[in-house]
Amino acid sequence: xxxxxxxxxxxxxxxxxxxxxxxxxxxxxxxxxxxxxxxxxxxxxxxxxxxxxxxxxxxxxxxxxxxxxxxxxxxxxxxxxxxxxxxxxxxxxxxxxxxxxxxxxxxxxxxxxxxxxxxxxxxxxxxxxxxxxxxxxxxxxxxxxxxxxxxxxxxxxxxxxxxxxxxxxxxxxxxxxxxxxxxxxxxxxxxxxxxxxxxxxxxxxxxxxxxxxxxxxxxxxxxxxxxxxxxxxxxxxxxxxxxxxxxxxxxxxxxxxxxxxxxxxxxxxxxxxxxxxxxxxxxxxxxxxxxxxxxxxxxxxxxxxxxxxxxxxxxxxxxxxxxxxxxxxxxxxxxxxxxxxxxxxxxxxxxxxxxxxx
Length: 358
Ligand code: TRP
Description:
Layout: H1 5-11, E1 16-21, H2 29-42, E2 47-52, H3 54-57, H4 64-81, E3 89-92, H5 98-107, H6 112-116, H7 119-125, H8 134-148, E4 154-158, H9 162-178, H10 180-185, E5 202-206, H11 239-247, H12 267-280, H13 284-291, H14 296-322, H15 325-354
Parallel strand pairs: 1-2, 2-3, 4-5
Helix pairs in contact: 4-14, 5-8, 5-15, 8-9, 11-14, 12-13, 12-14
Tryptophan binds near residues 18, 22, 143, 147 and 157.
């Protein structure tokens, strides 16, 4: 899509990336390979803003001390994995009030009918929808505010967030339409765009090829909410625990196939080969060229060694960083300050557009 090239060229700035991670529970291999590695790579040719979304977290109950611990843990994981918090921005959402303020304005743009279609709310609210928090229902509007508050161009997310990204675009589009005349009068239309104030953010969807699945059920995503600890490898697991979890991972009795086609219908085998490939920086074909025809009794120890080799330094660096909470907090404070410097003038424009005294 060439939607934002006009502005990029005008201001000569790199495209802006925004993404968020919820500080709930432990980070696992799925978060690492699915999101964090991607975030690290995007730093090359983007201006990146990575947000620990604590306001999203409390849409379901969070123990306060645990929330704060987890906010710092996600921050430490970002840095340990190679995100540079000086070159880019790392902060927690609740420090920058424009997220909540813009969410309110966008609440008045978004339609109830749109939110009623959100499948993630239905899943998370479950049967007892009457008892879900209003915040959980409104979650996608806050997410739209996160992204639009920075005029972000690109948003790396998992497949499960695709619908929320589409909603974000719908909200941006409706705001641009509803206030089109006012935006033009104030001279706030983006150059090279369709005359809108908010750019329509482009999703960078993580494909199924790199999705990490549960070690207990290769058809389910690796998830922090899975009741079985053996379903996932946490970034905080030590080498023994990692080896044990991989040893116990579900497989089938066949040896590994010689080619990728042979992984079809073998979800658990495909998952383990996928994890190996992602961590080794190889294709699945290359992994099978080495391990095809060999059984899991040989493959699992090799995989365990690789996971330990790749995660151990991150694990150690996270521990080191978390020993110095003062440093982590200073990263989040400095990040918030720089985030605010971007979001504040944008929200001041929103105020003018809507007719608030700015
Ligand atoms: N909802 C996202 C998730 O659970 C987290 C998130 C919140 C986010 N705000 C965002 C992701 C803005 C991208 C952009 O994964």
